Structure formats: C-alpha cells, structure tokens
Amino acid sequence: MNALLVDDSRLARTELRHLLQAFPEVTIVGEARHAAEARTRIAELRPELLFLDIHMPGETGFELLESLEAAPHVIFTTAYDEYALRAFEVNALDYLLKPISEARLAASLEKARAQRLAPALATAALPDEPAPAPLTMQDQVFVKDGERCWFVRLSDIKLFEINGSYTQIYFEQHRPLIPRTLQHLEARLDPKVFFRANRQQIINLKWIDSIEPWFSNTLKIKLREGPEVEVSRKQSVLFRELLSL
User: Fold this and answer.
1) Looking at the domain assignment, is residue 216 inside a domain?
2) Alpha-carbon 8 to chain mean position
3) Cys-Cys crosslink for 61: which of 52, 57, 148, 194, Cβ 3.0 to 4.6 Å?
C-alpha cells in the first residue's frame, strides 16, 4: 500500500514513519505539512492510504477531504478524541490517538488490507465470506442507539447481554442496544479477554470482581460496578480449564 503522511508536526511524521518500518507492505510515498500541500501530493502521487491529522494550519483534515473528488482510504492521527464520531461519518478506516502504539497501528493496517481486498473478494466465487478483522482491547467501536452515539474503547465494555432481538452493551452508566447477535460479536472479540458465560451473556474478564461456586458445579461471577452473571455448567468447566494453572 502506498501511503501519504499529512501532519503539520515534523516530529509526528517522523515518529509515524518509524512505526511504519515494522510493516513492509506499506510504502511511504510522501509527506505533507498542511492541507494545500496534501492536495497537491495526492494528485501527484495517488496514494492508496492517507494518514491524516485533523488540526493543521489553514484547513483541517476534514476540510481537505471535503475538497477532494476522490479520496484515498483515511486513517486519522490526532491528539484529540472529540472528533471520532465525525471521522466515522466520513468513512474513515480508523481513528488513532497520539501517541500511536504499534499494536493500534497494526489493527488499523489490517482494516486497510481488508478494504483493499474487498473488491476482489466480492467478485470471486468463494463459498464463504471472509471473516471480519478481529478487534483488540484498545480498539474503539462506534455504538449507535436511536439518536445517541458513543465511541467506546472495548476495554471499557464489561458485558454484552441479549435483550430481545438486540444485544445490550454495558459501559460506564450506559446500556445501549445494538442490532447484533452474540455469535457475531463473539467472532470479533478477543477470546482471551471476552468469555461467553452462557447463552445470553459475554463478559469482559478484566472486569471480574469476585467468583463464587454456585448450584450444580457452576459459577457465579460479580462484575465490578455491574451485575452478577451465572455461568452455565458447560462454560463453568471451560472457565476453570482456561484460567487454572
């Protein structure tokens, strides 16, 4: 993938260039210090991927995108978290907060690879659709329930719970509903962190406050600042196997 780095900070561009050395599939074709320069570079170099800062002299990163007839795939790189929702409204691949970690950068590039492969996969006669990229604990996910929206880090979600034909998400004081099944979520979540306690619930192991034996050799788990969850008999056996020395 050919990439263009757009940031008014030379230090930020240097740090990102250094991080990208760990990913040989990415070729940095150029840099730009502001939107006007980026517009010229995009026309000249035709990058497939844009690492784009938001606050820059003159125009913002959003204004740059609005001015382009056809924009590359975009990964925002910024020190501000308040623009995350707007970033996903313009179909950004990801939103990286500075300082950027190699793990978060790797997850973003996985999304870029998936987008790059999507047209070929759509036309290929494959028996099954490719599985979506797995999420890490540091990933942030967009959640919408009615007119309310959140951009929440997975590590802050303590529980996923079936509620009718929806799944309810527990984080902070919020309990939004999303039109996803637990099976879909389970396939995307890290199994070392998120555990399917029963048919109705997936818990974040990092939020466990206490565990106690329950009826018929099952377990009852209390989550910090949250509800108690009864683990099914089958999953209680698995839980002990997974977390025992």
Assistant:
1) yes
2) 25
3) 52
